[in-house]
Specification:
The chain is built from four helices and two strands, in the order ααααββ. By secondary structure, the protein is mainly α. The longest helix has 24 residues. The two termini are about 55 Å apart.
Length: about 120
């Protein structure tokens, strides 16, 4: 989706630059007015793209079926039924040896002061 926005922005930049070139160099107003109509059409298309499509948030009913919702509810009830005996995550780094701060560490894990 982000790439589509980039393409549209690049196209908008190109249309603005070409319109300004037609304004400065064309011998008549025809090419400039034609490029302005293309620019107006492009702005309308960009506005439609941002409003008409829901890329980031899809409706839940389109994403998940009824049987998937029922299965998820069943699993959640089983998890809640375990009470305090349910498994919990503990970060292993917090339960190891304390860190040595302020020096080099040798192969046994002992710290040495360098000062």
């Amino acid at each position: 989706v982000q790439q589509m926005w980039h393409v549209q922005f690049g196209l908008l930049l190109y249309a603005v630059l070409m319109s300004s070139i037609f304004y400065r160099r064309a011998g008549s107003w025809g090419p400039f007015l034609l490029s302005l109509s293309a620019l107006a059409c492009l702005v309308l298309c960009i506005a439609r793209f941002s409003r008409a499509f829901s890329w980031e948030r899809l409706p839940f009913c389109d994403v998940c079926s009824d049987e998937a919702v029922a299965k998820a509810e069943e699993r959640m009830e089983g998890y809640r039924a375990q009470g305090q005996t349910r498994p919990s995550y503990h970060q292993p780094e917090l339960y190891g040896k304390p860190w040595v701060v302020g020096g080099l560490v040798d192969s046994e894990g002992e710290g040495h002061c360098t000062a």
